[in-house]
Amino acid sequence: MQQALQHMRVIDLTQVLAGPYCTMVLGDLGADVIKVEKYPNGDDSRIMGPYFEEESYSYMMANRNKRGIRLNIKEEAGREILYDLVRSADVFIENYRPGVTKKLGIDYETLRELNPGLIYCSISGYGQTGPYSHKGGYDIMAQGLSGLMSMTGEKNGRPVKNGIAIHDIAAGVTAIYSIMAAYIHKMTTGEGQHIDLSLVDSGLAWTVWESAAYFGAGEVSKANGSAHRVTAPYQGFSTKNGNILVGAGNQKLWEKFCKEVIGREELIDDPRFLTNSERTANLPELEKIIESVLVQQDSQYWLEKLDAAGVPSSPIYQYDEALNDPHIRSRDMVIEYEHPLAGTIQSLGFPAKFSQTPGQIKRPAPLLGQHTREVLQELQYSEETIRQLEENKVI
């Protein structure tokens, strides 16, 4: 089956999550991704549990559809192998701290001499420039610096980390669309380029409504639980046996909610709740009134009434419930494939459903150094040379 990126070759020198997520998606879409892991221990995520047959499930989740080699690029012979790979590549992606690639001899200026059409993507905590560029940065630091933690959690509570590594994933997604834009440019001009992106910038770019509030009115967004800053009722509420989400996000839905769901039609003409602005201004009182009704019945009762009225709603799932929801399963967001050590494993599916060039699982995450010999043979290295490289601990 044809895939959209089947003619793209990617050399991946990233580890943990942001870079590997990017290259996993490129691999899902057909790119030949060669993951170059450091010698001797490989990607740092290999030490993150849980483990299955001594393989890290965390590593396996972000590294499918890649071939893996283990390479000591601190040795000249290792760098020469990397240079050979670069000559055949479209994309090179790395997530070293700024300055390290120059010391290793694998910076953009060096590699573009070997391949002028190379798309070179750097992912770092703070970017290649600026006063913080020299600092190491993890997802949680980016959440703090971007202001995200200050607006996550309950009102008047301590700052709370987002439940997922959101800046890592934001950086991975930013890298995907940036590489694709550069690839289109390369297809029309033959030119490569350097892409410099950071965890901080990538997540900050997603704060669209919050920037509108600040630039437009000088408002600083704060933590507000599940409630929305400018729309009400648009949040979670307690029921008799759990919690649900209600999204009466416009006047029509608000009136349907009052009439057809909670049976409190008088709220429509209540001066405190006449418009969305007034409902938002008087949200604490509105929450108490709504919740006093919702706690009288179970969640499923209210979800069925909300659906019947056409008011957007949802259960608030635990993660295991989400993965086993019939809709999630029907969309193939949980898939199975074979791993040489772990056997049949489960993974997340492909979020985009292409009619002509769908994502595919062509190979599981590589074992450490699994494809080193195969890749070197493709580069025309002799068996004797490969044996010497192994003896010298280059591969």
Automatic annotation (TrEMBL):
Pfam families: CoA_transf_3. PANTHER family: SUCCINATE--HYDROXYMETHYLGLUTARATE COA-TRANSFERASE (PTHR48207). One of its GO terms (molecular function) is CoA-transferase activity. This is Formyl-CoA transferase. Keywords: Transferase.
